[in-house]
Amino acid sequence: MSGEMHHGARIGWLRAAVLGANDGLISTSSLIVGVASAEPGRAAVLIAAVAGLVAGALSMAAGEYVSVSSQADTERADLAQERGELATAPTAERAELAGIYMTRGLSRDLATQVADQLMAHDALGAHARDELGIHEATRARPIQAAVASAASFTVGAAPPALLAALLPARFLTLTVVGMTLALLVLLGGVAARLGGASLTRGALRVAFWGAVAMGCTAAVGHLFGAVL
Q1: Is this model's pTM higher than 0.90 or not?
Q2: How does residue 41 score in pLDDT terms, banded at 50, 70 and 90?
Q3: Is residue 31 part of a domain?
Q4: How wide is the angle at C-alpha 185 spanned by C-alphas 35 and 61, nearest 5°?
Q5: N or C: which end of the chain has fewer CB within 10 A?
Q6: What does the pLDDT read at residue 138?
Q7: 184 domain-assigned
């Protein structure tokens, strides 16, 4: 059916969004817990939370843009090379495409017919999909990835930052830890659901590593706070 939506169609934006939200929630919560464990004033904790949110969102956007741009450059170079080969050696390219279909189980005659028809319809598209593995649903989109990463990081970082602004210091650490673990379970489950994976496994692995991150930063904050 043409209206079917498979999980692979979501992989481009899903990867960036999940990574950004997880990073925003875990890093900002860990930063707050770590700074609060050193027992500074409330203003210092809030400044750290806001600075972590802004710096993290911009860092995620820049990193994702550079990374995905490199992938996009590689895809464009491969497509340009393939376009040149189609222009200069169409017969060899047709035989190459037919050979790919033969390795997938088609007979020589049928593979040749399929290659002929696909190349007549969209030669570059056929080679992009079947020779290079470049599909429209998974093409590199740097700007989309950067915006999704920055936005999702901000969404993930906002709850702990708001708690840092609103809660008294004596309630902050436990509340941030509890809220973060609950949101990580929810976020991991949603991501697993969208990706077609196990809900339990997705939720628990995200929550586990979030707890490890917050525990480590709390220990560091407590240690340095005691030394200072």
Answers
A1: no
A2: confident
A3: yes
A4: 60
A5: N
A6: 63
A7: yes
